[in-house]
């Protein structure tokens, strides 16, 4: 049966500000795609990969441009076609996930089963992001997060004064597990020395220390902590290139272009012996629903996007005691 596909941009306010080395956000614009087969409606959400030049509006235009090729198809065929019609990114993510959703509903099985998981998804320990700020501010925010029950904190760093920031967070959250996201900002640093210092504070992982495309800067570095590729890793085809330099990858559906590619990425990483983190952009619970499936069994889970918003969709994921659950 032919499909009817619609798409729209929605704006969701952030709780306070979300600050990283590239700037601050007070809201996030998400692309929502709805796919109808005449009986069932599937939904998907994507958040533009802004550092790749995407905007919510450009993603909307991408979706609208391929509707003539997709709407005459069935949902499963359309999901195959969209892998070829669109590159990895938020537009393909929203479409791909909506197509998975409508197919599972038509098959009258839960999405996890339709996607090939062997068991229903279980609640997960998720990291909570501590935005970039002055050490005292990050310390206070870390204390607030642990008071809410979060046991894993992800710190946004900038390549300047990072040890002081991490030390302050450690003081504010002495029992928390800490992971850090350098957001490509450590190219000018002695990465091995920086990692050794952070290891003394109990940090357990570093995300994307060098600029994407300059991954060979990590060649020959003996690092005290696992180093995870984020901005450098989009699709399964990237894994072989990154394996010599990184210990693992961060899978985000917006980067990968949907659940289809995310599952392939996880399979490729496991085959390469790499660790897996599953993360997200700022998003509502609709955006992390398929990522929640991909995150089952991951080494690190960072699906706090909805928890960083001023409000979420009705009947969204529950964030309690440091866990994310349906």
From TrEMBL:
* Matching InterPro entries: Dipeptide_epimerase, Enolase-like_C_sf, Enolase-like_N, Enolase_C-like, Mandelate_racemase_C, Mandelate_racemase_N_dom
Q: Pfam families in the record, alphabetically? A: MR_MLE_C (PF13378), MR_MLE_N (PF02746)
The first-level EC class reads isomerase
Catalytic site positions? 156 (proton acceptor), 252 (proton acceptor)
Extract the GO molecular function terms from the UniProt entry: metal ion binding; racemase and epimerase activity, acting on amino acids and derivatives
**EC number(s) per entry:** 5.1.1.-
UniProt KW Metal-binding keyword: yes
**The keyword Hydrolase belongs to this UniProt entry's keyword annotation:** no
Ranges for domain Mandelate racemase/muconate lactonizing enzyme C-terminal come to 135-228
Give GO terms for biological process.
Answer: peptide metabolic process
Q: Which cofactor does it need?
A: Mg(2+)
Q: What is this protein called?
A: Dipeptide epimerase
Q: What is the lineage of its organism?
A: Bacteria, Pseudomonadati, Pseudomonadota, Alphaproteobacteria, Sphingomonadales
